From TrEMBL:
Residues 116-213, 215-305, 595-690 form the Fibronectin type-III domain. SMART domains: FN3. The keyword Oxidoreductase does not apply. GO terms for cellular component: membrane. The lineage of its organism: Eukaryota, Metazoa, Ecdysozoa, Arthropoda, Crustacea. Keywords: Kinase, Signal, Transferase. PANTHER family: CYTOKINE RECEPTOR (PTHR46957:SF3). This is Proto-oncogene tyrosine-protein kinase ROS. It comes from the Eukaryota.
């Protein structure tokens, strides 16, 4: 499961704590009374005999009853204080009480430091923990405990509502073995207010027990070629204990291929498969108690690709001293000199771009040159990048991104690796530095890795790898005195790196999958592999140099043996420093092996906006692996007529000229010069009914900039109201939290509870008075009334809309409260039926627009762990 976590939510029960009450400052009482004066006009049009002085008296009575209301509610307190008083009088008492309670809880929220619970020693088991905490001096408090998974996505959830617990300690049961949790205590001071959350505990892990309870997550499978399957996954959420391995199984009919790999790995490639075959793939996590449930997927290997054209014969490019030679990969071929450096200048490094038939040279004169290999120019071009910080030595090419990496001798004596684009030669520092010169370097752009080697006698001898996006963090993937790290070559076809032996006269293949080694030339006849300085490979045939001598092997199938043959020419008087095979197979361009993900489409009447995520990376790919695919989008209408949108270079596209009120099915696939990937899952939708004009419909959305307007697919956004337009002392954090409209007037509530009207015709923005404090808005467009909710006062107000004549706008501050108390967070009006709907955190309710016939449509416990977020 990715991003999905099923959590069992339970509430921890409530325990009354008898402690001393903090002194209430006279300033807070005075503020409550001031607010009573400010609110005494609210509801003056209700049918009640409570005049102005009565309203103020009742409101002040509610202010004074704050402490007693914490035991029950403001409504209960006011009824107890005036059992024979009229409803209007009690109503003003409740207003004052709500003001006092809201201010009291807000003061506690700002000033009280609630500490984190801690683990009780020796209480930890595989499915339970006991935590304890210090109780603050609060009366009538209800304690709640929440937990969440420390290493997994998810919200805080409550624990056991029906268990009475000690005021400072509780044992939490029903937990998952070997899982990290965090806990916190909430202090419910008043039933009408959100609880005060304490600080979360440090992560606490339960003990190990049993097999993994869940399968590995986010399994993605792809077939990069006809014989391999690539897998990538995430560890299981509930492993039950430390993992010892993963079991990977690929099945087709009676064929079964399996591998057990180390638990720190989350990707793999399985080989030896058949072309054009459906395979079922499973991955299971294993701990000391056994295997957990498997994650399962399926994949089809592609048909066997045609062999690379034999019409394009491989050519060997040799760099030696001041010479560049070119010849056929045939031991009887005679070389042709394609470049000779100026007198006194030697070639220190080379890199080849097969697709453009160009060779890049680093020279002892401190320059980088570009040499065409097709004979189109007699002299190379100086392409030394701007800002190259030192003497260039080795070169390596990322042929997919068109970028060169250069090993540069810095003036201070260190060596650095710098990078620059071929079409914009400006060198930048990768951050990779060495105290001593590496022996060789190469690039694997398909998987996003840079390789380099350090040779003996350095104590750091070995083969190293780092990701393109984090060049400063290199890992040593191979080492050992039996390997010669003076040179190496990447075998892209077989997912391995070829390294010559040091103690044995052979060549080893280091698997990129597990970095295990295999002797691939143990049966060579009179081997000549020791002392290698340069190495190249093509179609499982090796070519290498030992000093100024170059060898090319041949293979005899009847004897299953390799033979080393020396080229017999005399041009290489100095040691050969580089070998390249000029052939497309040397620099493969990947084809997408999996479909694009998460295709989503938004429809207008005549166009649609489609977005998707790139195909999942292969099992060996790093985070910076090449994924700049081109995409093809296919639209198919209900009649089966298809239309393709080609050459999409990003992951979104707007499709024009669609028919209104028409159903379409869309799919997308990635492609490259090497082939087409599979189609994505289909997305089905329908265009809007008719062609729309500029007046609508449109979307309104709140951003850091302000309130924006766009069409229904998000195109052509414009700023309707900038953040700077709002009347706030701190405009940096202000944003629109709710909005509604009637005709051409927008009504906006901001996160500081102010309410504004905005005229879409004139652009005028005005605040509807300081007395209108709201978090939710709704409009009755038939009765032409604005409704707003003030959760702090626990009231919903209604007032006539301002007149349509902008020169005589009516003030809406004298709103009429509905005759009940509720902390509404969201409001909606059904004007045709005359019904007002609202949602608190735990209910969805409704009444007529005048407040009569109030009823619950949905209700959940306050501490059930569930909350109403939105409704429509």
């Amino acid at each position: 499961m990715t991003g999905r976590l099923f959590c069992c939510a339970l509430l921890l029960a409530l325990c009354r704590v008898t402690v001393s009450l903090p002194e209430v400052s006279a300033q807070n009482e005075e503020k409550c009374e001031q607010l009573c004066v400010k609110n005494q006009g609210r509801g003056s049009n209700l049918e009640t005999s409570c005049d102005e002085s009565c309203r103020l008296e009742q409101c002040n009575k509610g202010c004074a009853g704050r402490n007693r209301s914490l035991e029950s509610s403001c409504k209960q307190f006011c009824m107890d204080e005036g059992p024979s008083s009229q409803q209007g009088e009690r109503w003003y008492c409740v207003i004052g009480c709500n003001i006092a309670v809201s201010r009291y809880v807000q003061q506690l929220r700002e000033e009280l430091q609630l500490g984190a619970p801690t683990l009780v020693p020796d209480s930890l088991t595989a499915d339970s923990v006991t935590i304890r905490w210090l109780a603050p001096p609060l009366p009538h408090v209800m304690l709640l405990v929440q937990y969440k998974y420390s290493d997994l996505p998810g919200e805080w959830i409550f624990y056991q509502p029906d268990v009475k617990l000690n005021a400072s300690q509780v044992t939490i049961t029903g937990l998952k073995p070997y899982t990290k949790y965090q806990f916190r205590v909430l202090w419910a001071v008043a039933a009408s207010q959100e609880p005060l959350p304490g600080a979360p505990s440090h992560p606490i892990s339960t003990l190990a027990r049993g097999r993994p309870a869940s399968a590995p997550e986010a399994l993605t499978v792809a077939a990069p070629d006809a014989h391999h399957v690539s897998l990538r996954w995430l560890p299981p959420s509930f492993p039950g204990g430390p993992l010892v391995s993963y079991l990977l199984v690929v099945r087709a009919g009676g064929q079964r291929t399996a591998a057990e790999i180390d638990p720190h790995l989350t990707s793999h490639v399985l080989g030896g498969l058949q072309p054009n075959t459906n395979y079922t793939v499973t991955v299971s996590a294993i701990n000391k108690d056994g295997a957990g449930p498997p994650a399962e997927s399926w994949v089809r290997t592609p048909a066997l690709a045609a062999e690379v054209s034999t019409q394009e014969r491989p050519m060997l490019i040799i760099g030696s001293g001041d010479l560049i030679l070119r010849l056929k990969m045939n031991v009887t071929s005679a070389p042709r000199t394609v470049y000779r450096a100026d007198k006194g200048v030697n070639i220190t490094g080379t890199a080849m771009d097969v697709s453009s038939a160009q060779l890049f040279l680093a020279t002892s004169a401190g320059r980088v040159l570009r040499l065409p290999l097709d004979g189109s120019a007699s002299r190379p071009v100086d392409v030394t990048p701007v800002g190259l910080a030192g003497q260039p030595a080795l070169l390596a090419l990322d042929w997919l991104a068109g970028a060169l990496y250069g090993l540069v001798a810095a003036p201070g004596g260190d060596w650095t690796v710098q990078r620059w684009l071929l079409d914009d030669p400006k060198a930048s520092d990768t951050g990779l530095r060495f105290a001593a010169r590496p022996a060789h370097m190469a690039v694997d752009p398909q998987n996003g890795y840079f390789y380099y080697s350090v040779s003996e006698p350095s104590p750091d001898a070995g083969l190293f790898r780092c990701s393109f996006d984090n060049m400063t963090s290199a890992e040593r993937v191979a080492s050992g005195a039996d390997l010669n790290f003076a040179t190496f070559v990447i075998d892209h076809t077989n997912f391995s790196v070829l390294v010559p032996g040091r103690e044995k006269n052979t060549v080893f293949a280091l698997s990129m999958i597990s970095w295990s080694r295999a002797d691939i030339r143990s049966g060579a006849v009179r081997p000549q592999y020791d002392g290698m300085l340069a190495l190249a490979e093509h179609a499982r045939t090796l070519c290498w140099s030992r000093g100024q001598h170059i060898y090319l092997e041949t293979y005899r199938a009847d004897r299953r043996a390799h033979y080393a043959n020396q080229f017999m020419f005399s041009q290489t008087r100095l040691p050969v420093i580089s070998l390249h095979v000029q052939h497309p197979a040397s620099q493969p361009r990947p084809a997408p092996a999996s479909p694009p993900r998460e295709l989503q489409v938004v429809f207008h009447s005549g166009r649609a906006l489609a977005r998707w995520q790139p195909p999942a990376l292969s099992g060996l790919a790093g985070p910076a692996a090449w994924s700049h695919w081109t995409y093809q989008l296919r639209l198919t209408d209900a009649a089966g007529r298809s239309r393709d949108v080609e050459n999409i270079t990003g992951t979104e596209v707007t499709v024009e000229k669609l028919a209104p009120d028409t159903q379409y099915t869309l799919q997308v696939r990635a492609l490259s010069v090497s082939g087409l990937g599979p189609w994505s899952a289909p997305f089905r939708g329908r265009t809007l009914e008719h062609h729309l004009d500029a007046s609508g419909p449109f979307l309104l959305w709140s951003t850091e900039v302000g309130l924006l307007r766009s069409d229904v697919i998000g195109d052509r956004p414009t700023v309707l109201v900038s953040r700077a337009s709002f009347n706030a002392s701190d405009k940096s954090g202000i944003h629109v939290s709710d909005l509604t409209w009637c005709d051409d007037i927008m009504y906006l509530a901001t996160n500081d509870s102010r309410v504004y009207s905005h005229d879409l015709r004139t652009g005028e923005l005005r605040q509807l008075g300081d007395a209108v404090q709201a978090t939710a808005l709704a409009v009755d467009w038939i009765g032409r009334r604005l409704y707003w909710s003030s959760p702090k006062q626990q009231l919903i107000y209604g007032a006539p809309l301002p007149d349509d004549d902008v020169t005589s706008k009516r003030d809406v501050t004298a709103g009429t409260p509905l005759p009940f108390f509720t902390a509404a967070r969201h409001l909606r009006v059904d004007a045709l039926r005359g019904v007002l709907y609202w949602a608190t955190g735990h209910t969805v309710e409704a009444s007529y627009l005048n407040g009569e016939r109030r009823r619950h449509l949905y209700k959940t416990g306050i501490f059930s762990g569930k909350q109403v977020r939105k409704y429509s």
